[in-house]
Write a structure and sequence with these properties.
5 helices, 5 strands
Length: about 130
Amino acid sequence: MVLLPGTDIVEIERIQRLIEGGHDAFLARWFTDAERAYCSGKASPAAHYAARLAAKEAVAKALRWQWTGPVPWRDIEVLHDALGAPLVRLTGQVADWAATQSITVVEVSLSHSRQHATAVAIATRG
């Protein structure tokens, strides 16, 4: 078994400016309907969007993404289990890539302060 780490950090204020600026195309390109519903329902949507964006970047790094073209970000979905812990659901091209790389599990941890959101992802190969 091989563990493949990935990490990322995002400035929450940057995401807040995108939300306030009406950049719906950004949200639609990066987040699934379920992710948008979850984040929009929170007291601080920007922090939750930023954490998910960091998670998606961390997952792409852990998967060693090398597909032709940009990462289809909506193919990496950050949801929650029954206890509220984050979990990753891969679909489409990203799921196909993970399968070709013998990735069996992807775990993620999220955190945020007032200024930054961060995520760590671990993909398991073999």
